[in-house]
Each structure stands twice: as C-alpha cells, then as structure tokens.
C-alpha cells in the first residue's frame, strides 16, 4: 500500500491552518476511536455546509497510523469552477478573485491530489434525455471506488449526499451500503464504518465551535434498507446539541405563539437568558439519562453560557430575527422572518435560525418540548 506523500501532508496542513483563518474551534470527542483503525474503513461524515470541512483536518491529524483513502464528492469539485460557484457569490470582488484562482487550476489539482473521485448527481426526472448518461457515469465512478477498496484503500463519504434540507440528519443514500456489500460479497473483505457527526454552533457572532463526534468503528451487513436505517441511527446518536440549536428552537417556539396570537411578542434580555439557561439544564439532564445524545457540556458553566448568549443576541439582531430596544435590554421577535419557509435547496442559507431549530427538533420534538415547558 502506498503512503501519503509530502505534498498530500502539505495540503492537509493548509486545511489545518485554514481553521484559524475561518475562526473555527474544532472539538473532537472520541479520539480513542481514531487509533489503530481496522485495515479498511469508510469514514461516514454528516455534512451541513462547506464551512466545517477545514476542521475535519483535525480528525486526519488524530488518526494513527494514517490510512490512504479516496474521497467521494460531487462533480463540481473537479469542474474547474469550484471556488467561484460556491463562495462569496454576492461579493463581486471576492468572486472575481476566486474565479482567477479557479482559472489557475490549483483547486482542481489539490482535489485530484487528495484522491478525490467525483460523482455526478442523477436527475430526478427519469424522462430527462441526460438521465441515462448520468446514471452510466455514476456506475463508472462507483466501479473506481470498488476497485480502490479491493486494492486496500479506505474511503471518505458524506452519506447524506447533499447539504440541502430543512435541518437535521437527511436520508442516507446507498453509496456506503453498495461499497460494504460489494467488498464483502465479491472480495470477502470486511470494510468497517467509522461514523462521524459534525455540528457547528453557527448562530453566534465571531468564532464558531465545531463539534466533531467520532463513533466506534463497526461492521454490519444487512439488506439495503436495514443497513441505511442502522447507519442513520448510529449517526443520529452522535449528534451534538449546541447553543445555536437551543436558542433557535426557543425563538421559533415563541414565534409560533406570537403568530397564533397575531400580536408582537416582547421579551426582556433577562427573561430570555433565564429560560434558555433552564432549557439547557433540562436538556443536559436528558443527555445524562440517555434520552438525548451529546450536548455542549460547557453550557453548564455560567460565564461560557453568558458569552454564547450575548453573541447569539448579536447575531440575531444583525440578521433581523430580533429587534433590540431599550438599550438592548428588551427585544421584539420578527416572527415572520423566523417562521419563513423556503425551498429545501436554499432553506439553510435563507433561514439559518429555522434550520438550527429544526436540527434540535429532529431529535424528537415531544422530547425536546418538555425541556422548554417551564
């Protein structure tokens, strides 16, 4: 088996330092599962946006010994226009800069060096004349992955297959199942799943905490539907409850009340602080009992919680979710904006507060509601 060379390690180091440029604070839980991994592993990682990608370099640095693996990604990564089509579309200066960087071919060369194999997205309409051709391309690309696995490579896959959605874990696609089943049935090889759930505490002004929960490597071989359901369950259990989710969920809950009453809802800063603090404590109790997965444990510390709260208010004021009044000691909810609905392709970008509220709700709304009752 070949080793990762100096160029590869240099690229990963670039992602490692990009964490500071993007003001991310990665926190990895389950580092012990990154030591002495099985010979072949499929890294299955949840994926909400491109923002958290640099933080995953910390996972790579924690792996010993480091495997050589391929990465499954959408075809846009290798089309030569990745930066200019995915970042700063509304900023003409930065977009022009990214177009220039794309034109140099450097991003594409970097992705190719990272053993990235692109997969085209199939068209939903089977009557589209391009549908058959795309399906053939997908089959061809999958054959490359199967060949790499037979040669001893590990693989990194984002099993949800997209960043689109309304919040919470999305439907698991069949890519992981196909690779595991093919390896076991055709090559008599057990390929283990290494589940990783990534959550960003994003609705706070300034530095963002990136929570990376790594699960225990495991092998299971079942029918496609049973396999995908088990993988979904494993990834869901690695969810991290963040301040952004708690704050967003409560503001959405209040907005529904305001909308039903057809009146503006005004709250004081102290009222909101007290209620969110109590909700965080109630959620922590449920985590300890095993009713809910992990939570940001630092939220139990007063100073840390207060800092998060202030930064959350600043974010919500900047995004017009809240109208701060009385020298920032009171606010009025913008219920219409908080409850705004958009198509799933743009919902996360158009209504990030709604997206994070739905992330918490995805753990079971009845269970979550109890923590906010009082």
β-strand percent reads 15-25%
**Shape label:** globular
> Can you tell me the number of structural domains?
2
What is the succession of H and E elements? HEEHEHHHEHEHEEHEHEHEHEEHHHH
What is the mean predicted local confidence, pLDDT? 87
Distance between the termini: 58 Å
Helix count equals 15
The whole-angstrom Rg is 22 Å
Class per helix and strand makeup:
alpha/beta
**Low-confidence runs:** none
**Sequence of strands across the biggest β-sheet:** 1-7-6-2-5-3-4
Largest sheet: 7 strands, mixed
Helix content: 40-55%
Q: How many beta-strand runs?
A: 12
3D architecture notes:
This protein is of the alpha/beta class. Helix 9 crosses helix 14 and helix 10 packs across helix 15 (365-372). Strand 6 and strand 7 (208-214) form a beta hairpin. It has two domains: 6-68 and 120-238, no CATH class; 241-372, no CATH class. The protein contains 15 helices and twelve strands. The chain is globular. Helices cover 47% and strands 15% of the residues. It has helices at 6-21, 57-62, 82-86, 92-103, 106-113, 131-150, 175-186, 224-236, 243-261, 269-289, 302-318, 335-338, 347-350, 352-361, 365-372, and strands at residues 24-29, 41-45, 69-74, 116-119, 154-157, 192-201, 208-214, 240-241, 266-268, 294-295, 322-325, 330-333. 32% of the residues are buried.
